[in-house]
Design goal:
Blueprint: E1 2-5, H1 10-19, H2 21-24, E2 29-31, H3 49-63, E3 68-78, H4 99-112, E4 119-129, E5 135-146, E6 162-164, H5 171-174, H6 176-182, H7 184-197
Parallel strand pairs: 1-2, 1-3
Antiparallel strand pairs: 3-4, 4-5, 5-6
Helix pairs in contact: 1-7, 6-7
Bound molecules: inosine 5'-triphosphate.
């Protein structure tokens, strides 16, 4: 059985591949956008994580209508900033912003505002289409706080400024094995694993 990941984000792909490992051992094949001759990522114009995840899932489904399709939209919601950067997480510092530029902007704005409330959540909304075209929705949330400075070299995006609840280190220091036990993406993917495992017995 094949499953197609509708993401251009290398960090997400690496995490998905690790999380799906139990089923990969049972014969599941993970396909990525790199397996397509051409793919033009759709514009993420939605107002919510669900809207954007659907846009990505539908765009790949149009090319692979009879396959399992997995897309997710995720981001960081900072409590003291009314949920920003939220759906704008990937492009917070501008349309072509790098992860580094996004982190710099976030820490700068939080510093300028002298925010006492640094609580934040990573959110993940996943949209899955099965080969019959039925949609399945899974989600996850990881609570934590935003560090004063970035620390750590693992991971991607905002990992080096995010300290999970109950920890003193950032996700980028704690590493991917830790992250995959608790993350917003792993919570959603574990629900996907439950669904897929019923198909692979
Ligand atoms: P795709 O849309 O192609 O999947 P993307 O990077 O544009 O790739 P999103 O639109 O879902 O993905 O934006 C998510 C952004 O939120 C991502 O670029 C990171 O900056 C941040 N983010 C999401 N999950 C994260 C995680 O686990 N660790 C760190 N940052 C994360």
């Amino acid at each position: 059985m094949d499953i197609w990941l509708a993401t251009t984000n290398r960090g997400k792909v690496l995490e998905f591949e690790m999380l799906l490992e139990p089923l990969i051992k049972k014969g599941l094949k993970v396909k990525t956008l790199g397996d397509l001759a051409t793919y033009y990522p759709p514009e993420e114009t939605g107002a919510t994580f669900l809207d954007n995840a659907r846009i990505k899932a539908r765009s790949l489904k149009a090319m692979q209508p009879r396959e399992w399709i997995v897309a997710e939209d995720s981001g960081l919601a900072v409590e003291g900033m009314n949920g920003l950067p939220g759906v704008h997480s990937a492009r917070y510092a501008g349309p072509k912003a790098s992860d580094f530029e996004n982190r710099v902007k976030l820490l700068k704005i939080m510093g300028l505002k002298q925010l006492a409330n640094r609580n934040a959540s990573f959110l993940c909304q996943m949209v899955v289409f099965d080969p019959e075209g039925q949609e399945h929705l899974f989600s996850g949330e990881l609570k934590g706080t935003i560090a004063k400075n970035e620390v750590g070299r693992n991971g991607f995006g905002y990992d080096s400024v995010f300290i999970p609840e109950g920890e003193t280190k950032t996700l980028a220091e704690l590493g991917v094995a830790y992250k995959n036990k608790v993350s917003h993406r792993s919570q959603a993917t574990n629900k996907l694993l439950e669904l897929l495992s019923t198909k692979l017995v």
